Amino acid sequence: MATDELSSKLSRRLQIEEGAEEPVAVDHFGTQDSSEDKPSTANADSELGAKLQRREELNEGQGEHQQPSMKVLNPYTEFKEFSRGQIKDMEKMFKTFDAGKDNYIDLMELKLMMEKLGAPQTHLGLKNMIKEVDEDLDNKLSFREFLLIFRKSAAGELAEDSGLCVLARLSEIDVSTEGVKGAKTFFEAKVQAISESNRFETEIRQEQEEKKKQLEEQKVRRAAFKDLQSAFK
User: What residues does the EF-hand domain cover (predicted)?
Assistant: First the structure.
């Protein structure tokens, strides 16, 4: 049987080599898998090409950058160098100039802000201001990125002639209104204002405690006087 089978295979190979018979695919499934891999590989190449083209468009300033998923911001824990009062003041300022009420300050809103502060900037200057703290590359300022301006300013990381440095400098509170003297910057003024406020609250609390103590002593004296009256009746 083995000899007959071998003889049959040799005869068949001779016929194929002489062109008398077409060869038959031995590994049918292997060929099928290979053909199925081609569309998959083509799809992967197409997807990679689309991503590369998208990135090139963003680098050239074309197209709109998609907003990445952002974690919820807690400014009080992330920006511990600032007091709650300072952060609330910055938030108030941010919302004042967020004309669109979308929780972002875009190029036009920043333009109006700088004009309002008395330091108008060129279009390129405004773009550079945003770029310096625009971590998510969406060409606008979130509240967190707005806080980064003041963090960099407090750390001395802003160039003196930069638009952001001007913004931070012009954002100082009116010390005459707050009653704080000798404050050089927004932060120094707020720290002094908070200290004055805390001292004032402490004095009020002490006065309230003193009045409460006096009322309690009056009650004790009245009770003692009534007991004395009852003893003579």
Answer: 85-120, 121-156
Structure letter (DSSP) for residue 176? H
d(CA 72, CA 144): 10
- Report DSSP letters for 95-156, one per residue: HHH-TT-SS-B-HHHHHHHHHHTT----HHHHHHHHHHH-TT-SSSB-HHHHHHHHHHHHTT
Q: Name the residue among 105, 114, 173, 107 with its Cα closest to residue 145.
A: 105
Distance CA 51, CA 60 (A): 14
Q: Say how many Å lie between the first and final Cα of the chain, rounded.
A: 141
Among residues 85, 88, 84, 107, which one has the least CA distance to residue 97? Answer: 107
Using one digit for the tens of pLDDT, what is the confidence trace for 86-115? 899 999 999 999 999 999 999 999 999 999
For 40-62, write each residue's pLDDT tens digit.
455 556 666 666 676 676 666 55
Does the pLDDT value for residue 78 go beyond 80? Answer: yes
Q: Residues 202, 206, 209, 215: is their CA dihedral positive or negative? A: negative
Tokens of 62: 């074309």
Calculated CA dihedral for residues 73, 78, 81, 87, nearest 10 degrees:
10
